[in-house]
From TrEMBL:
Keywords for the protein's UniProt record, in alphabetical order: ATP-binding, Nucleotide-binding, Transport
Pfam families assigned to the protein according to its UniProt record, in alphabetical order: ABC_tran
InterPro entries assigned to the protein according to its UniProt record, in alphabetical order: AAA+_ATPase, ABC_transporter-like_ATP-bd, Metal_Ion_Import_ABC, P-loop_NTPase
Organism encoding this protein: Lacticaseibacillus jixianensis
A molecular function GO annotation: ATP binding
The ABC transporter domain, residue ranges: 6-231
Statement: the UniProt record of this protein carries the keyword Hydrolase: no
Family: Belongs to the ABC transporter superfamily.
PROSITE patterns tied to this protein: ABC_TRANSPORTER_2
Stated name of the protein: Metal ABC transporter ATP-binding protein
Amino acid sequence: MTEPILTVEHLSFGFRDRALYHDLSFTLAAGSVTSLIGANGVGKTTLTKLIMGQLTPTAGRIIKAPTLRLGYVPQFRNIDPEYPLSLRSFVGLNQMQRHVPWHSKAEKQAVTAALRETGLLERQNQPLGMASGGEKQKAYLAQALLTHPNFLILDEATASLDVNTKTELMTLVGELNQRRGLTVLFVTHDLELAKAYTQQYLLLTQAGYEMRPTSEMNEANMPKELRPTEEVR
Ligand SMILES: Nc1ncnc2c1ncn2[C@@H]1O[C@H](COP(=O)(O)OP(=O)(O)OP(=O)(O)O)[C@@H](O)[C@H]1O
């Protein structure tokens, strides 16, 4: 059996006025692709924050393999068409938080590799503000890849993309999973994408949770707002 990269044991967490999980336990194997699904407000993003260490469990624990390196791809947001940075500059942004305000040769090569891996290299000089939704989302993905993660959290990364672009992005994520053995946790409302591109799902509900292979997903038993005919929000 593949080693777990993340183990959640008896996790409880809530905000002052609202309990979110009680006794949540699951394991993610290294190299697995899992969707995290559930209705609005059930606590999906909060769970990713707990995994990333931005919040502390009220009870239970989250055990990370010593080799774990997390990458995070945020939900696509509309970027002002006037946004001046090129795709390339945007992807390399986080590298600039160092003591010298220019990129080293190795950093430039790393940006080029991330642009190539996400299919953005040819359009690297295009202003991000003028890029398509899919290109913008790939730019976030390329930015995350620069930190060489082996565990990628995609937080509703496909939410406002059209069907073809969603498919393209998920195919790319699937290739990264295959090529680099990346573990993927994909937060989504989209049951069809979950079925097509992830091996298992973790469903959070107000009553509890379930974790199963996506081949056993029964849409009829899913919370109403997650049924496949309903387009995302
Ligand atoms: N910092 C906070 N303080 C208090 N309540 C919060 C805080 N962050 C989130 N919440 C609440 O916790 C609940 C879970 O929020 P979360 O963002 O994790 O849900 P979600 O499942 O990701 O929702 P969505 O699908 O709408 O993005 C919500 O009711 C939210 O309002």
